[in-house]
Amino acid sequence: QQQVKQSPQSLIVQKGGIPIINCAYENTAFDYFPWYQQFPGKGPALLIAIRPDVSEKKEGRFTISFNKSAKQFSLHIMDSQPGDSATYFCAASRQTGANNLFFGTGTRLTVIP
Amino acid sequence: NAGVMQNPRHLVRRRGQEARLRCSPMKGHSHVYWYRQLPEEGLKFMVYLQKENIIDESGMPKERFSAEFPKEGPSILRIQQVVRGDSAAYFCASSPGQGRDEQFFGPGTRLTVL
Q1: Cis omega (within 30 of 0) on the bond before A8?
Q2: A32: which residues sit within 8 A by CB, 6+ positions away?
Q3: Is B62 helix (H, G, I), strand (E, B) or coil?
Q4: Which of A7, A64, A97, B20 is 20 to 30 A away from residue B78, measured at CA?
Q5: How far apart are CA A8 and CA A108, in angstroms?
Q6: What's the average pLDDT block by block, 10 residues per block, for chain A (113 residues)?
Q7: Contact status of A32 with chain B (Cβ, < 8 Å)
């Protein structure tokens, strides 16, 4: 069973556009929600993360929006650039106990110059 | 400050051989996680270790797979009698623990079973 559902599977935007990637989870025990960026042949790199006590977090051009009641969170990339073309994964974990990450299935983003 | 290191980066094995994957966590990190990524899929948790202890191995197949994180040296993921279905990218992540959740990933080992 997929604990974290991610959409869309792929996304193409023009340079300067604002791609939005959405994730939903079921387990209300999750309290840590990171986003990772992965380039082909590389390991995932932590981009930004949020906890349920805030509804939005911004770091540079990356923003996470979090809706606790809907159990959804999303990543927005402002002023997207061709260098942002990569696969993006959302994830979730519990802070207490074993905090292994449950990953979404990934979104392949292409930013066209 | 070196990041998470994994070796080898690429490993080719024939069916029935053993694969041994190594992971050195970031300096100061005492928690290690292993994940497997199949082509075009997300990462799936396998095992979580602290020094000399397996904390959670709920994602690891019961047979042929084992993991350790000794007091000295890297963490090892061992796959015995590999089969074609074991072909995947295996990623190690480390975290500092002590209430900090951030996991930092290594570059991965890409295992190909012929």
Answers
A1: yes
A2: A49, A51, A92, A93, A94, A95, A99, B101
A3: coil
A4: A97
A5: 8
A6: 90 97 94 94 93 93 95 97 97 79 95 96
A7: yes
